[in-house]
Amino acid sequence: MRASILQSVFPQDTNSLGTLFAGTLVGWMDKAAAYAAMRRVRGGVVTAAMEEIAFREPIRQGDLVEVDAQVVSVGRTSLRVQVDVWRERLEDGTRELCVQGHFTLVAVGRDGKPVPVPPEVAAD
Question: Judging by beta carbons within 10 Å of its beta carbon (0-12, 13-18, 19+), is residue 110 exposed, middle or buried?
Fold first, then answer.
């Protein structure tokens, strides 16, 4: 299961060097990971861990950012989601992979307690 988010980098999203705040980006990554996991479990999830977040290239003001999340493995109550972050330079359309990370999310019921991840349902 996948989910993607598109964001534009505005001045309020950047530091004094004109690059995207890491905390802002990690928030976007966490949302995309949660959306992918929620689509897979068809219910609520909470983030349990953020691991191996590797910042390879800076993202600058004016860039378009695509945050792409994909569920890569499923446990009894947890899901591991890989998140890739791409920047696109609007002036020439070039794309570059800038950040990668892994997130672990736990399926939860209405009471906030872990619940088993249901079997995947085949699409029609």
Answer: exposed
